[in-house]
Amino acid sequence: MMLATSSLPLFSPRSTPTKRYAFSQPPLLHSRASGPHLPIARFPSHLSSSPTTLTATTPVCLAYVSGPASDPIVPSNDDLDSSDIVQHHQLPTPTSAISWGLLWALLVPHKLRLLASFASLLGCSTCTLSMPIFSGRFFEVLIGARPEPLWILLSKVGVLYALEPIFTVMFVVNMNTIWENVMSSLRARIFSSILIRKVEFFDRYKVGELTALLTSDLGSLKSIVSDNISRDRGFRALSEVTGTICLLFVLAPQLAPILAVLMLVVSVLVALYKRSTMNVFKAHGAAQAYIADCVTETFSAIRTVRSFGGEKRQMSMFGDQVQSYQNSGIKLGIFKAFNESLTRIAVYLSLMALYCLGGSKVKAGELSVGTVASFIGYTFTLTFAVQGLVNTFGDLRGAFAATERINSVLSGAEVDEALAYGLRKDIKKKDALDKSFDMFFVSDPDGDNRSKNMSYMSSLKGDSNVQNLARCGDIYLEDVHFSYPLRSDVEILKGLNLVLKCGTVTALVGPSGAGKSTIVQLLARFYEPTSGRITVAGEDLRTFDKSEWARVVSIVNQEPVLFSVSVGENIAYGLPDDYVSKDEVIKAAKAANAHDFIVSLPQGYDTLVGERGGLLSGGQRQRVAIARALLKNSPLLILDEATSALDTVSEQLVQGALNHLMKGRTTLVIAHRLSTVQNADQIALCSDGTIAELGTHSELLDRKGQYASLVGTQRLAFE
Ligand SMILES: Nc1ncnc2c1ncn2[C@@H]1O[C@H](COP(=O)(O)OP(=O)(O)OP(=O)(O)O)[C@@H](O)[C@H]1O
User: Fold this and answer.
1) CA distances, 92 to each of 1, 63, 142, 281, 428 (Å)
2) Would you tell me the Gene Ontology cellular component terms (predicted)?
């Protein structure tokens, strides 16, 4: 169904600041699939996971097959040229998500700023390290031990005092700008790298774990520079420690070894002790987080708490947590007090040593008063800088651990190369001018591999019009076997055969756990069959560009997920990459029986729907999802229990909308309530991973098999 396009593109994924319809997320996040699930398909696992197993004699057609080698699905080698064959050997081996090479590649574009940072670091460290020398000279001038006029000395000190903050600003601004840039690119890369993993990756890791990678783990990597560019930390601390020790040796070679070693040892010990108390600080932070969790859980489930009379239990839980927060707070106070004093003790010990040793040297005429005064200044510099350096090493340890976590999560999981390829191709085609994508594709050490792989993937039939094929061709599931990757020992589909005739409605029914939703996942290409194949108009799905296939399938399921934007934007998400006019959105909403309720909302199409569409009723959410699918206008429609959660009135409204949506499309309907699928062109009874019975409602009733007994059971239940 084609919807009229108005000349004014009001609903757009790009920036249209005056309209809420503009998506706030970058278009890369958007899939053309209905709902938030990306139709991720996988690249043949035996190729991408073990690229070295292929030899020059490996048949080219195997590149497209994820099933056994005996089941080649792309018969023609003509689609590939000889360079593709060579490239088979060069598929990327899993590389670390964050590597030194990548960091270097991200830093290189900022080389001028890096140079400026290094120069300003030298400048501010030189100023800082010169100050004690001038303090020493100042005392010598005051007691007449130095002939230099006071005003000349003071003007030199004035210049130093003026330059140091200027160099500091230059250093901090440049370092911060570089690192913010690097971190943005890194964050974007990790995000897109997660986005293009195979679906089983998302089965394996919880959303919270993945969120932590992008927030706290990358946060520790960020703080390695942003928290360490201040005075007495990181590079500055390192340069000050090195510079101070060198100066001590230059100023008083006879005193320096003893003092330097003493100061270093005392400062390092104090810093290490302070570091060891970090756990107490962390425990206090964790106790605070538990309190927040308890509050969130209590108030978000307030109705459940009320209905079970759980107030006392929640109060006791909260009380326990407040108590442990209080205990850790008191403990923390004691440690804080010691930490404060210990730094001073370190300085005092160093000063005492300096007074004793330095004083005796001055008395013996071996050392000038000015030098001892300078040493006093260096005592402070060294103590604080060493402690800062130890803290920086601690931060480094945290950053390495975080990097290792990110790498271990991402390097073990397979990238869905086909999806990645389609995504890049799409972005190249449509968003050449969109700068927000730049940070996702920084040239990196693996770029070579990727370009080879892209060339390889481009041999897929990405340019054939799969939408047209799906509009006029039947869809065949041929001897499909399937096990979920995380439970590969349990076969869910066991040689399933089914034909979805073009433009007709097929109903899939059967007992719970029979594999009905699994068939949907395979049709959507969230997973690929373990063996067997799915074809459209005789062409294997795996020979198509995956992002193209995403446009072919619309799924409306029992619990449609809406995004927390406006109703209009949610409908426009049906075409996430296109400019969608308000007229088109309204037309889709009218066809989905949603227009009337939408205009009665406080802000009409601009009304925000809340988290996951929570501010709408189930039936309203469903009709918005149907409008979204109508706008998408894809040839294959899958309705997975689309009306089962609705009351009778809502169901009628939604059913009307669905009838509109199903017109002229190849439709697969999954339903438990058999009364809703009686009019389907064919009904397939799925049982134990195969199609056990197939026919129209009356044919299956006549057969008196499983379907007939299911119908009987449901009738009995209603009577
Ligand atoms: N992501 C997954 N990983 C591993 N096993 C899964 C996964 N999803 C489903 N399964 C298993 O696959 C089997 C078939 O599930 P499926 O959801 O396809 O059944 P169904 O026929 O749709 O059931 P229902 O009618 O209850 O929705 C079940 O045993 C289920 O536990």
Assistant:
1) 42, 14, 71, 43, 21
2) mitochondrial inner membrane
In short, whether 484's Cβ falls inside 6 Å of ligand 1 is yes
Left (φ > 0), alpha (ψ -120 to 50) or beta: where does 387 sit? alpha
Closest approach atom of ligand 1 to CA 672: 25
Please tell me the distance from the alpha carbon of residue 524 to that of residue 555, in angstroms, as a whole number: 8
Residues with Cβ within 8 Å of residue 230, at least 6 apart in sequence: 172, 236
Asked if residue 251 has its Cβ within 6 Å of ligand 1, the reply is no
CB-hemisphere CA count at 13 Å for 169?
Answer: 4
Pocket of ligand 1 contains residue 318 by CB under 6 Å: no
Between CA 677 and CA 584 the distance in angstroms is: 30
Does 487 or 48 have the greater pLDDT score?
Answer: 487
**Helix (H) or strand (E) segment spanning residue 693:** strand 690-695
Cα 551 to middle of ligand 1, angstroms = 25
| pLDDT tens per residue, range 139-172 | 888 888 788 888 888 898 899 889 989 999 999 8
| Model pTM score | 0.68
Tokens 């402690």, located at residue: 387
Ligand 1 pocket test: pick from 199, 490, 492, 557 the residue with the most ligand atoms within 8 Å of its Cβ.
Answer: 492
> Is ipTM beyond 0.85?
yes
Instruction: Check if 517 has its Cβ closer than 6 Å to any atom of ligand 1.
Output: yes
* Residue 676 to residue 210: CA distance in whole angstroms: 40
689 C-alpha to center of ligand 1: Å?
10
Q: What is the pLDDT of residues 583-618, one digit of tens each?
A: 889 988 888 888 988 999 998 999 998 877 778 888
Higher pLDDT, residue 495 or 101: 495
Q: How many Å apart are CA 199 and CA 216, to the nearest integer?
A: 24
Instruction: Copy the structure tokens of residue 383.
Output: 């103590």
Nearest to 527 by CA among 487, 560, 581, 564: 487
- Closest approach atom of ligand 1 to CA 490: 5
Q: What single letter denotes the amino acid at residue 58?
A: T
Half-sphere exposure of 467 (CA within 13 A, CB side): 11
* Residue from 509, 517, 674 whose mutation best tests the ligand 1 pocket (most atoms within 8 A of CB): 517
User: Which two structure tokens, joined as six digits, stand for 709?
Assistant: 């007994």
Structure tokens at 80: 């590939």
User: Could you give the angle at which helices 234-251 and 256-276 cross, rounded to 10 degrees?
Assistant: 160
- Confidence (pLDDT) at 429: 66
